[in-house]
């Protein structure tokens, strides 16, 4: 049986059992080489002009500045980040990382920025950071609420509070009825137990009287002892 060659030279059997894509890794290597050549050419051009070459941090800062300008203020997230989704679970993952910190490694993945973070704190710092928000078209500034918005929010909170209060009242009445029904069942159970106990005592007395009558009919008297003075 033939097997497809993999990047590691093995059969490609791992936690997920997937095959290594040689072309994918070759494409990543070509992209890194192209980026390195462009950076080297840019630094050579800057040196000819008498300028200092750009550092890695300066290039990253320039990329951030080239991002589109934000068009809206900071907004609340509409869905949960599900950070605790896999808490106390054991998962099988591929121990490889994608290009630029892609999603193929273990950790928390950001689809917007195509980056993976090893822990939840780093992931939270990222999704609340300026770079992530810029890609979403948002600033780090919160919109100032108007008087009408504040009044509408207060009315909404009052309505929610009223609904919860009515729910609690309904639950309270239902709980009282449940307690009353339980006490009634317990009283009936005690009465039934007393009735059964009384019936058992009467049956025992009846059986004892029957035994005494049978002994008297056979001529047996009392076996009690008497003292002679």
Overall average pLDDT:
76
Radius of gyration: 42 Å
Helix-strand makeup class: mainly alpha
Instruction: State the distance separating the first and last CA atoms.
Output: 115 Å
Number of helices: 5
List the helices and strands and how they pair.
Elements: H1 22-48, H2 56-65, E1 72-74, E2 108-110, E3 115-117, H3 120-127, H4 130-135, E4 138-142, H5 147-217
Parallel strand pairs: 1-4
Antiparallel strand pairs: 2-3
Biased composition (Basic and acidic residues): 18-79, 182-209
Protein name: C2H2-type domain-containing protein
Organism: Acaromyces ingoldii
Can you walk me through this structure?
With 229 residues, the chain is mostly helical. 53% of the residues lie in helices and 6% in strands. The chain is built from five helices and four strands, in the order H-H-E-E-E-H-H-E-H. The chain has helices spanning 22-48, 56-65, 120-127, 130-135, 147-217; strands at 72-74, 108-110, 115-117, 138-142. Strands 1-4 form a two-stranded parallel sheet. A two-stranded antiparallel sheet has the order 2-3. The longest helix has 71 residues, at 147-217.
